[in-house]
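Bug #77: duplicate submission created two jobs. Keeping one. Sequence:
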Amino acid sequence: MQVKMYIGFAVALLVVQMVVLFLFGQPWICDCGYVKVWEGVVLSGGNSQHLTDWYTFSHIIHGFLFYLVLTYFFPRIPLYARLALAVGIEAAWEIAENTPIVIQHYREQALAQGYTGDTILNSMSDTVMMIIGFLAARRLPLYASVALCVVFELFVLYMIRDNLTLNVLNLIHVFPAISEWQSAGM
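Kept job's structure:
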């Protein structure tokens, strides 16, 4: 019975995320009028607008990290309670990420100059990808989870000169050297 309650709470958090983004005025889908499964062009109006993109890897890593941290600090809390907590953290981030102040801060970065925030579809997909990462981390040995995180980070860094690590650094402070390096790859 508790499992259903925790899953219900996680679903309720997803609904809250969706409603808040709707109230923020974020569009349901890309203004282009269609949905793509993958948007691979970072410097396009479709980035963060479709189902998945290069930043999807970061959200999978969120799931790995949330599982690791929540399991380490709260080992006695049931798995699905930790999952619901992880959904709450991810939903809070998705909401914060789509506030005007964070959108403006992202626009100051080399790879996000035209960023307008996520569509509701993309944001919900990001949270689902975190859930997938969380559940995968539960099944994988620690070394495999760590290895996947490193592989994802290096792969995305190689492909688009950005990743979760650089994203966090640039969110804290826009480093000119990082921006110049990222701009050189465009």
